[in-house]
Amino acid sequence: MLADSDGQAASNGTERAYANGKSHHRTVPAASANGTHKPVVSTNGSSKSRPPDTYLGHDREEVTRILIQALSDMGYHSAAQSVSRDSGYELESPTVAAFRNAVLEGAWDEAEELLFGAATPEDRSNQNGNGLVLAPGTDRNVMRFWIRQQKFLELLEQRETSRALTVLRTELTPLYQDTHKLHFLSSLLMCQSPDDLKSKSEWDGAYGQSRQILLSELSKCISASVMLPEHRLAVLLHQVKQSQIGMCMYHSSSDSPSLYADHNCDRRQFPSENIIELDDHTGEVWQVVFSHDGTKLASCGGDKQVIIWDVPSFKAVHYLKDHDAGVGNVAWSWDDSMLVTCCQDRHARLWDPHTGNLIRKLERFAEPVSSCIWAADGHTFITGALDKTRSICQWNLNGDKVFDWANAHRVEDLAVSPDGHWLVAMDDRHHIHVYNFVTRELAYKMDLQVRLTSISISQDSRYLLVNHTNGVARLIDLVNREPVQTYSGHTGGDYLIRTAFGGANESFVISGSEDGLINIWHKASAVPIEKLNGHHPRCNAVTWSPTDPCLFASCGDDGKIKIWSNNEWRRSHNEATHHNHETGRSSNGWRGEMGEA
């Protein structure tokens, strides 16, 4: 657990694939992130003999040191040593290696001395005495806090409470002004056992991964020329791939692009063909949602029922009919073992989607239940309602209310981030209400100046997609609290029209439309990719398969669900489709639209 002021820094309880160095106290993967140390003449990673040179326009020393690190990461230690010997470049200096070992061995005083040298508190330069060169803008007190916090936690783990209390009072408190954080650390003094400490602090102990993670976070604050960032070559290659994916207008593959050639997807692979129509609903279809594992599809609408379809056969396996009015929304639990439905009859219901049995019906609201989502814990869910007295409530599986946000605004749609940090509510006007779901407090509220029709959050938990009645969808950065992209070209209206992220790496934004069309944009550039004839008169919702980037579904007021993919999917399912094409409609309830490929 690092200091809160670090922002995106991972906690010390987070497991990393590689340790950032070695320690003789415990087993650490041999491929350390910053390579192995060898004696050198110069320090801080500079060249031993050769003058600065270039490699195809790149600094030769930088390229060579990154290669040495990568070879060491992959376990090719002899090759790494050979490259270092032949090139005359070393990965890191003796001071860096000593600092690494001090952190991993828990020599905290030595680690601070190596990191900061003999600098006094008045010294505000990046070069701290004879210590390591820090990155510009680094707060040395925050780094000291991280080190001393680890020291404090390890003393508590060892049941040396008196020494831990001294560290808290004399070493941590003078450094940090966040009283909430200090109070939390103080509360850990009351832990009855090491296991209790680890549970409450979300920290895995001195001999878990915590020291490696601490070193990783500290290394980010040291000049990159002195201590290379972890797995630098892998990070650069990932950035190259993401850049090429970002420029690919029709990215439709979930496979990682090859490094051998520039990445480019064939437009013919993009899912723009209507391959199946499902028409078991007897009224308007308002919502359609894939399960998280992509093996089921749930649909609901004005005919008072929810239909669960098998994927990819698209056979209707269950009809959930115990509703007294139209069903406006459904939500799969994270493990797909349960389903919540929201009904205009003012009830929310919990179902077993594998048997089709009703598990529980929640108490009646004063107004229709408009939306439902599952919390990240998988054991509770949240409902949104037009009922101002209970507009946002959290429930457990027994139907007991866990928490009531007690808001005075009506809620038409809800979204929760996969990481469990954000809860966003859309009211029936033009506001979004963004809550910290951990503390349950309102983080901020945004007035978007126009009525809204739907919201959804990206898989990386960073962006909110908001659809407007004026035919515009916005991508909003939840952290920076500002719009970053706008998508236009579809039409809005007086009813809920749902938009969604989709495709490989969520490369696309897709939306229904009042005019019945399906609109798809490239997410990063907002360039329109496709405009498909969807439903008449209105396309209400779209959903992209979370496991198949070449499969999505749409639904509309025509009572149909349409499944969309490409010719390859068409060919692979041609035999089953040909049977349904000849019979018009089979017992599984869908009509093929494909014919021969």
TrEMBL record:
PROSITE patterns: CTLH, WD_REPEATS_1, WD_REPEATS_2, WD_REPEATS_REGION. Pfam families: LisH_WDR26, TPR1-like_2nd, WD40. It comes from the Eukaryota. GO terms for cellular component: GID complex. Keywords: Repeat, WD repeat. CDD domains: WD40. Residues 1-59, 574-597 are annotated as: Disordered. Gene3D superfamilies: YVTN repeat-like/Quinoprotein amine dehydrogenase. Residues 574-584 have a biased composition (Basic and acidic residues). Residues 92-163 form the CTLH domain. GO terms for biological process: proteasome-mediated ubiquitin-dependent protein catabolic process. WD repeats lie at residues 278-319, 320-361, 532-565. The keyword Repeat applies. This is WD40-repeat-containing domain protein. It comes from Pseudomassariella vexata.
